[in-house]
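Bump. Still looking for Putative periplasmic iron-binding protein C-alpha cells.
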Amino acid sequence: MTGVNRMIAKKILSLIIVFLAFISPFVTAAPIQVLCAENFYGQVVKELGGPHVSVTSVITHVSGDPHLFSIQPGVLIKAASADLIIFNGADYDPWIKSILSNTARKHPLVLEAARLMNIKNGSNPHIWFMPQTMPVLARHVTDALTQLDPAHGDDYARQLKHFNDSYGAVLKKVDNLQKQFHGTPVIATEPLFNYMTDAIGLKMLGSGFQNSIMNDIPPTVSQIREFENALNEHKAKVFIYNNQVINPMTEKMLALAKEQHIPVVGVSEIMPSDTTFTAWIMEQLAKLDNALNQKQENK
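Sorry for the wait, here they are.
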C-alpha cells in the first residue's frame, strides 16, 4: 500500500469512528423479550419496563379458559427468544412446563407467581386476586429487568414506584371494605375471587361446591343442597360468579340468586385488553362494594 493510500485509509477510518461516535447515542439496545402466560402479568411488565421491553402474553381473551389452552407454534417461537418468562403456577397453567422444557435458550430468567407467594400445587391458584401478589411480583420483575439491562435500572426503579403508588388505591379500597363489611356472609360459584374476599374479611359459604366446580367435578347432592339453602334462606348476602365460565350448574345457581333478589357480582378471570391491572381490580372491587351496599338496603 502506498503512502497516499495509507493516508486515505486513515482518513476513512477516522470518519467512520466519528460517525459511529455521533450515532451511538441514538442507537438503542434491543428490548428485553418477555413471555407471560397470562395477560394480567404481561400488562404489569409493560408498566414496569416501558419502551425497554417487548411483552408477549399467551392468554389474552376474556373468553379463553387458561385450563384448556393448547400451545401454538408461535408461542414456542416467542419462548425460544425470551429473556424472561413469567407464569402463574399452582397448576393453573401447567402447559408452561412444555414451553420451558422446549425453549432453545438455555437460561431465561423465570418467575413463578405462586412460588413467590408460597402457594403450593393443589391450592387455590387464582393468586392475582390476592392483594399482595402484584406488588411482590412487580419487585421481582424490576430486579429481573435490572439484571438483564443494568443501563436502564433507574428507569425500572421509577416505574416500580409509579406502579406501587397507583396500586395503593387497591390496598386502600380493600382496607375500607374490610372496615365496613368484615364478617358479611357471601357465596361464590368457584373460588376465583376468594383471596380478595378473604382479605376483606367476608365469610365465604359453599366452599365444597366451589372446589368441585373449579376442579371440573360434579358437585355432590349435599353440596348442591347446602348452596341452594344459602340462597333460599338468604344466608348469603352477595352472590359472586365467574362470568367467563358457562356451566349449567352455575347458571342454575345464578338464576336462583336473582330469583331471591340477592345482589350478584360477575368477576372475569382474564383481564380485558383495554385496561390496566390496577383499573381492572378497582372495577371488580367497585362492583363488590355496590353489591355489599345493596345487601344492606335489602335487609
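The radius of gyration is 25 Å.

Edit: fixed formatting.
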